[in-house]
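Cross-check.
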Amino acid sequence: MKNNILLIASLILISFTACTSFQFTSLQSNLLNLDSNYFLYQDDTLEVKYSFAGRNCPLQLTIYNKSDDPIFINWEQSAVIINGQSLPINPLNSIMSSRSQTSTYAIGNHYESSSSISNGVIEHSDRSGFVPPNASITINSYNLSSGFINTTLADSTQKVYEESALRTVTKHFFTKENSPLKINCFLTYNNNTRTQKNYIKSEFWCASVYKTNYQSYNNRGDQYFVSRSSVAGDILSTAAIVGVAIVAVKADLEYDDECCHER
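Predicted model, tokenized:
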């Protein structure tokens, strides 16, 4: 009975670890990269943070309005461009938080006021693009990449110790010119009168790639990962699961047989 339990545990372990590969891609940009947590754009009005942390390169934007007037992100005239293909930035949900005291502002001929609550968070799915004065809104968009990067055209390759992988890996490096993945984010925003349009173009590209069978996750805003399992791994995983079921039934029958003899 004890041997059967050990065999079940071993088969379960095999089923979850067999032949799964993870590829980690690090991005570079024309923007500031602050401690690998996010890329930063800022001007006199806006501060925009870009993060791609997680599985399949999820795009997250945090837009902070530094001014004393409201602004409006024009989502219809904003886009994310992946290797030349333009896609809309479609905010699925957002989190709004404020850093300021109560303020009054004008929209056309109407005056409205906005007040903030310290550490207050509001979740909504508003596509208006409205960002209050001295407040921020976080947009979670869709995943930008789910496939493995082709490393055959890498500019250089070398073995390095990667802290996120906790081991030495073969790392493939790319330049901006030969990068197999290029991401451009194009944002359009208006001031409170909605008359003056402003444009922000931010560029990102694949700088390095490495593959490992060890999954680690460090929530770096300049890095994302994808995964895949081989056909052999799928077969082995299925066989392991079937084996678990067979061994479990066999163990159950043996247990019942032991009980019958005891009676």
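The CA atoms of residues 29 and 204 lie 4 Å apart. The chain has one domain: 20-229. Passed to J.P. for a second look.
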